[in-house]
């Protein structure tokens, strides 16, 4: 039995914040942001929306694309670093209720930016026991975690959601080799205070995110290269056997650094960070949906999804596109 991505969908807020807009808020410029990150604009959520509303919209589009009714779902996995509630209920339960997916289990998975890859891996495993379709939703409202006076981080992030419906089939293809892992010694390289770690954090609202940019960059490049290389080695393939590498959209400098270390032409890396900025776990499914809508993905294409993020965590999975 093979597990396929049967439907893909995404949703981004209508409001766009350009680099020029940001330059009026903080000491920066379009030239500086583009040269250091590749980002030109980002989408910003409206006051009435949240991770759940964005995720639900993306989920509905993915379900429609797959031709699956919400009541057919066996489970819903939501990945988010910006859930609607700090602890409970899970954003997955909120989305399950909004969709009317009354027969589905629902839970959140916390794996930062590689959340979508983790979600696919977990859903794939669950579907070996329960063959009903699964829904993986990655949804982020990063703008609500940002210190808008910090020029080093406020330009990096955007809001959005992506979702995938997985179905089992006898047809070969779909999800393939995957590798997920972590290096917890770098846990404080990227974090947002909150939770009940101490009495103080328990009684105060979470603050803005904190990032050791150099440590995160080095980890991202190293894990990026290892994930692609191990995917090649597993099947005995080379870059010629793959149509695309779809990375987490964090920073074009990370991709540029990886290209220098692995034998993959830069043209095989799909990049859309210029339009969306870093949407954390939502970045890969947003890219996949854009690729499908624009006719970039073709049936039979082999692709590699790779991601890295806070934790420090990493994840990669190969996919043979069968839509």
Question: What can you tell me about this protein's structure?
Answer:
- By secondary structure, the protein is α/β, with parallel strands linked by helices.
- It has two domains: 171 residues, Thiolase/Chalcone synthase (Peroxisomal Thiolase, Chain A, domain 1), CATH 3.40.47; 146 residues, Thiolase/Chalcone synthase (Peroxisomal Thiolase, Chain A, domain 1, 3-Layer(aba) Sandwich).
- 31% of the residues lie in helices and 25% in strands.
- It is built from ten helices and 13 strands.
- The strands form four sheets. A five-stranded mixed sheet has the order 1-7-6-4-5, with helices on both faces. Strands 8-13-12-11 form a four-stranded mixed sheet, with helices on both faces. Strands 2-3 form a two-stranded antiparallel ribbon.
- Helix 3 packs across helix 4 and helix 7 crosses helix 8.
- The relative contact order is 0.20.
